[in-house]
Amino acid sequence: MSLLMLHDLCIEPVKAITAKVEAQQVIMLMGSSGSGKSRLLYAIADLLPHQGEVKLENQAATTLAPSQWRQKVMLLPSQIEWWYETAEEHFFNPPTAKELQKLNLCLEQLKEPIVNLSTGQKQRLGLLRAINRNPTILLLDEATANLDHENTLAVEAYLKEWVSQENRAIIWISHLPEQVERMADYIWSINEQALTCRTNQEKSNKQLL
User: Fold this and answer.
1) Would the pTM count as exceeding 0.90?
2) Domain 4-81+136-208 fold
3) What is the DSSP string of 39-72?
4) Which helix (H) or strand (E) holds 196?
5) Of 43, 81, 148, 200, which one has the greatest count of Cβ atoms within 10 A?
6) pLDDT tens for residues 141-190?
């Protein structure tokens, strides 16, 4: 049984999509601007009306309350919203100094007013906030768009460790070919309103070395 199943999922401008995601996989989603990548993630997270069916561990999204589904299938949008003064107030269990350090962050930044943080710091703290809620599927919309190369690699390493654990997977929109090569198990591409899927041959070749 696949971890996540899409069956005839339709959301404009993308036509019916049938695809599956297995546990411990990273799916990199590519396509030109306006092709429907973000809308597809929003549909999978049940945040936009759509046709077709999405199942997590053979349980349809329609059988759960929207809040329950979005806890399990969690979208991290490109623009992250904050409601409280500090990042720390957004966590059920605030991350430890060791966990923050993996993303080149520190406890002081966790307690700092959000308005004083850089865009990149907020992006990494937003990722930690999402993972703190223990999702099964992470839907990432350009999760490293505001980061320099060092912090981009730190996020990638952190997510590789996270997804390697049982019953977790990632679908990640990226416009960086080199990031796709480093991270993807499979590459989904949206072209002419249709989704195609292929293995990441670059990663497969490295694993054989």
Assistant:
1) yes
2) Rossmann fold (3.40.50)
3) HHHHHHTT-S--EEEEEETTEEGGGS-HHHHHHH
4) strand 194-199
5) 43
6) 999 998 999 999 999 999 999 999 889 999 999 999 999 999 999 999 99
Amino acid making up residue 12: E
14-21 sheet: strands from edge to edge: 14-21, 4-11, 51-56, 59-60
Residue of 98, 69, 175, 159 whose CA lies nearest to 123: 159
Share of the chain above pLDDT 70, in %: 96
31 by DSSP, 3-state: which? Answer: strand
Q: Are 141 and 8 in contact (CB under 8 A)?
A: no
Do residues 75 and 131 make contact, with C-beta atoms less than 8 angstroms apart?
Answer: no
The owner of tokens 């990638």 is 156
Give me 189's structure tokens: 């591409």
Cβ(103)–Cβ(127) under 8 Å? Answer: yes
Residue 205: what pLDDT?
53
**Selection from 39, 1, 7, 4 nearest residue 193 by Cα:** 39
Distance CA 169, CA 137 (A): 5
What are the extents of the domains in the chain?
4-81+136-208
Residue 186 in tokens: 């499979």
- Of 146, 31, 161, nearest to 80 by C-alpha is 146
